[in-house]
Design goal:
This protein is α/β, with parallel strands linked by helices. The chain has helices spanning 17-21, 40-43, 46-51, 53-67, 74-83, 100-103, 159-164, 184-190, 217-228; strands at 10-15, 34-35, 38-39, 89-94, 109-111, 114-121, 127-129, 142-146, 168-172, 195-199, 211-214. Bound molecules: adenosine-5-diphosphoribose.
């Protein structure tokens, strides 16, 4: 399908693990769902934290430290570059807990699944920016501000509003398997706006999009922006 995107202003990106893959961020699925032989349920659920806060903090301390060793890749930077243009209003809804969109230059990022760079007080609910390592004495006081399995996503009140204002919806590097992210493409289609999927391979949701572009996010996202949105990167 030939896309005419000359009048597009408000663009929503939904991003998943695939957008950070070329930056070297490891995901559970890369490692057969295991971290040091622990399953996802052993480190990413409220029950796991209750049972073994030290294990859970060790996992997130490592992931937080890993952020300092990775950089935004051309996909993050291209979206960030687009955000600097007055002609466009860019929102990123991400399932990722890294900070690579922010470091790539995007100002409006909704983190559905929380952020590695934030911790939350177990009693007061206070949320703090935090870049270091949670120490043993604090293990039960602060938890990672991450949405664990079985918990409600963040920003759920803002997401429908952001989509309702969009003229174009682009999903990058997400298998779109996990709800509610999986439902956003239908929400976008229902309002008649073009929907584009960028992924290494076709996904179970590909038939829900107007167009699927196959390849690496770091190559296809900048190409798409230059070709269809006429922005020189
Ligand atoms: N470029 C483009 N797409 C890529 C790349 C790449 N370099 N590398 C991987 N992909 C694609 C894969 O083909 C896959 O479809 O990215 C997708 C990643 O899918 P998932 O691992 O399911 O990640 P995501 O969609 O973010 O998962 C949602 O599930 O594991 C939970 O909570 C976790 O936030 C995560 C959620």
């Amino acid at each position: 399908m030939e896309l005419d995107l000359t009048k597009v202003k408000n663009i929503v990106f939904l991003t998943g693990a695939g957008v950070s893959q070329e930056s070297g961020i490891k995901t559970f699925r890369d490692q057969n769902g295991l971290w040091e032989n622990h399953s996802i349920e052993e480190v990413a659920t409220p029950e796991a934290y209750e049972r073994d806060p030290a294990l859970v903090h060790r996992f997130y301390n490592l992931r937080r430290a890993q952020l300092k060793e990775v950089d935004p890749n051309p996909a993050h930077k291209a979206i960030g570059h687009l955000s600097q243009y007055e002609n466009f209003n860019i929102s990123v809804i991400t399932q990722n807990v890294d900070d690579l969109h922010e470091r790539g230059g995007v100002t409006k990022v909704l983190h559905m699944h929380g952020e590695l760079r934030k911790i939350r007080h177990n009693h007061t609910g206070e949320i703090r920016y935090f870049e270091g390592q949670v120490e043993e004495s604090e293990f039960k006081i602060w938890r990672p501000d991450i949405v664990w399995f079985g918990e409600a996503i963040k920003c759920s009140e803002h997401i429908p509003e952001v989509i309702s204002q969009a003229d174009l919806y682009i999903a990058v590097g997400t298998s779109s398997q996990v709800y509610p992210a999986a439902g956003l493409v239908s929400m976008a289609s229902a309002q008649g706006i073009p929907t584009v999927e960028i992924n290494l391979e076709r996904t179970n949701m590909s038939s829900s999009y107007n167009t699927t572009l196959l390849g690496k996010a770091g190559e296809i996202v900048p190409e798409f922006i230059e070709k269809h949105l006429k922005v020189k990167l």
